[in-house]
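[audit] Reproducing an earlier prediction to check determinism. Same input, same settings, fresh worker. If the tokens differ from the archived copy the diff job will pick it up downstream; this log only records the rerun itself.
[audit] input (149 residues):
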Amino acid sequence: MRTRNYLVLSSQIAAAFLCGILFQKFGVPAMSKTTYLKLQEPLLLESEGKAQDFHVLPAGTALYIDRSFPEGFTRYIAYINIKGDFAAEKIVSDKTNLVDPIWAHPVQRDDLPFLMANTPVTKDDLVRILKARKMTREELAQIVREWKE
């Protein structure tokens, strides 16, 4: 009777040990550290290939590197939360349809007058843009002189 109890106990310990090893190997993965970029300046987003229709990706947005291409650009992933219903077309992905990302680029000096006149940009965003472009006071004064209200 005693040997049977030891046998049952040892088999339970062996089973628990085996379950621990299997869970560690195949179970829920541990939280891994993820590297991402946090925008220090707003980026302009092109709307369906039209650079004149500015939309702004705000500073502070997290971008996760997806893939770098030999053509000289890198694709990033940005996660967004959406409340409520919205109109969208459901696409079933297969090997024939490729990812069709939108393009983004830093605000350039030539973009500033149109951007300030046609896009709601906060004072903080504007300061970040100007600092990132390392604009001189003379360049800023010229932009303000050319700015049509």
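[audit] rerun output stored. Observation attached for the diff report: The chain has one domain: 37-146.
[audit] end
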